[in-house]
Amino acid sequence: MNDTVMLVAYADSGLPGYGNMILVRHGGSYMTAYAHNDTIMVKPGQKVRAGQIIAKVGTSGRVKSPRLHFEVRKSVTAINPLRHLPYTRKAKKRKRKRGRRG
Description:
102 residues
């Protein structure tokens, strides 16, 4: 996954328990899911870029306080997002470097 143009595959509230949910297709069978949104600001088929605001966090679905449910999916299976987020890799490298100093 990278910061190229991605495609909104789903933006609706039809999946039970997730409330207002957005699925963004990244290519290579990867998707990201963003659920429990208050307001969806994109439409299916719309092109989006990394950093673009696509929703406002809320309490839709089966939650009582505002939150974001985030997933990385390969095909239909949820996978560990820590292996795919660039910030995470940088943070791990910095942590390892600090540990070696002292």
